[in-house]
Amino acid sequence: MTEERDVCGKTGAPAFALFDSGMGGLSVLRHFLDLFPEEDFLYLGDMARFPYGSKSRETICRFAVEDASLLLRFRPRTLVVACFTVSSQSLDILVDRFPGTRVVGMVEAGARAALAATRSGHVGVLGTEGTIRSGAYPTVLGRLGGREARVFGISCPLFAPMVEEGWIDGEIPERVAREYLAPFIEGRAPEVDTIILGCTHYPPLLPMLRRILPGITFVDPGYELAHSELLRPEPGRGQGKGQVSFLVTDGRERFMRVGQHLLGRSVEHVRETSVPSVDFSFV
Amino acid sequence: MTEERDVCGKTGAPAFALFDSGMGGLSVLRHFLDLFPEEDFLYLGDMARFPYGSKSRETICRFAVEDASLLLRFRPRTLVVACFTVSSQSLDILVDRFPGTRVVGMVEAGARAALAATRSGHVGVLGTEGTIRSGAYPTVLGRLGGREARVFGISCPLFAPMVEEGWIDGEIPERVAREYLAPFIEGRAPEVDTIILGCTHYPPLLPMLRRILPGITFVDPGYELAHSELLRPEPGRGQGKGQVSFLVTDGRERFMRVGQHLLGRSVEHVRETSVPSVDFSFV
Predict the structure, then answer these.
(1) pLDDT tens per residue across span A102-117
(2) Is the dihedral of CA B274, B18, B254, B66 positive or negative?
(3) Closest to A277 (Cβ–Cβ): which among B158, B251, B277?
(4) Where are the domains of chain A?
């Protein structure tokens, strides 16, 4: 427990532990910090293996189990999977594997908000290859919205590296966005009136996306998830010290430098660590 | 030795084993296959941890030692580090750690070719953040070319994901390229007459880059390395069966589908595997 005490020593178990393949999940943590300023948080960014979005489901599940195993040593009250790729492909695996812990992902809160916002029942989703390929959004939207929900998914592999490069508006980002959004711009999906940002890297693109598609309602699932947690009664709330700690598997300096734009404030108390190897296989 | 026999069973030890963080190194293998059609090859793509370019030197060294350890089980005559990020930051580590094996990287052959081509002695290098930050090119060009060699390095983080997306020409790739190449286009580095493509993902961009900068000589280090190997006398040459085998740590289907564009032919005989964990630390 040495490391556990070093990281969360003064505050005990955090209310929320979040993890992501890298720094993208900071755009989720941002909303949690806004809404729960008095709670303690622990965030893990698996920068050494970033990104997860283009990798296979088996590999993503293994990484997710390893990341969660590390965070659960700190006994958080809630584990937040702040990564859409993992949320859409491995949430069931984590829930099965760690029955004693409350585990929440990114997909459901955003899907509920999209269904509340849409008038046509036609919802667009932007995400990584893995998230779109998983079919998680059609499944969840179908379950929550019934047969009327129609989903139009588009994978946008260049958005994440573009945001990490700091290119969030201007000529090149707009050209790239117009390429990916062409089905909406050109009216090939005319009934879509609501689009879910299905990747933690995309919120910084929001002002530009709104300008390109002014008639569309955009949903930021990080905001929706933090809000839904706020509405949930939970004993022990508000007993933290407002402490936020970060663990990364690589690139501490880069995480702090680039991550502040996703978090909306400076990123401090960052330690490098390694995640435990876990045997994982579908077979 | 079961796996070793399965992969290279009919042919014994390969003449060349190559590895890269993913599929980029296929653009290097391509030139080797052209020049050594009768030899046997083994290629490892560490797709599960791709990309290496934005990660720290310690992590890159650890991954490199793990990748090399796997390939050396097959007892290749030459180990080719077909990844600029590893070549520029970890070649010395691999040479030290595996003294019984000939290890060659991507930096030196391209640097020699650039020095032969330049008249001004001013050489540009395009590469990942890691390759440019490493300073490997200034070091090697300085050693080979003396004081007159001047190096102008530009990191181009969006080029690799763009090539993997299949965007190698057209409006968006050209805008992105013009952004990165602005110092050359706008005359801020007027004496640069030769540019090294310092990343295995970049050769498919060559026709476009030549159109944008028609007065510049571009160097493809994969071609130069394969050529320099051809000129080197080696006993046992030409005794292979022309067999090419591939190992990947993830994404077999994607490796075959996208990789054929980098290899210039179809990618077959691909097996998924995992690399051994190795303790590695600078301390």
Answers:
(1) 999 999 999 999 999 9
(2) positive
(3) B277
(4) 2-106+225-272, 108-221
pLDDT, tens digit (0-9, with 9 covering 90-100), for A196-254 = 999 999 999 999 999 999 999 999 999 999 999 999 888 777 788 999 999 999 999 99
CATH number for the domain formed by residue range(s) B107-220: 3.40.50.1860
| Dihedrals phi, psi of B59, to nearest 5 degrees | -65, -40
Residue B47 at interface with chain A, using a CB cutoff of 8 Å: yes
B54 near A CB under 8 A: yes
Name the burial class of residue A232, with classes exposed (0-12), middle (13-18) and buried (19+) by CB atoms within 10 angstroms of its CB.
exposed
Residue A199 catalytic? yes
Instruction: Write the CB contacts of B98 (distance below 8 Å, at least 6 apart in sequence).
Output: B68, B72, B79
Q: How far apart are CA B226 and CA B34, in angstroms?
A: 9
Q: For the domain made up of A108-221, give the CATH fold.
A: Rossmann fold (3.40.50)
* CB-based contact A157 B172, cutoff 8 Å: no
May I ask the CATH architecture of the domain B2-106+225-272? Answer: 3-Layer(aba) Sandwich (3.40)
Given this chain, do its domains A2-106+225-272 and A108-221 carry the same CATH topology? Answer: yes
Q: What is the pTM of this model?
A: 0.91
Nearest chain B CA: its distance from A198 CA (Å): 19
- The radius of gyration computed from the CA coordinates of chain B, to the nearest angstrom, equals 18
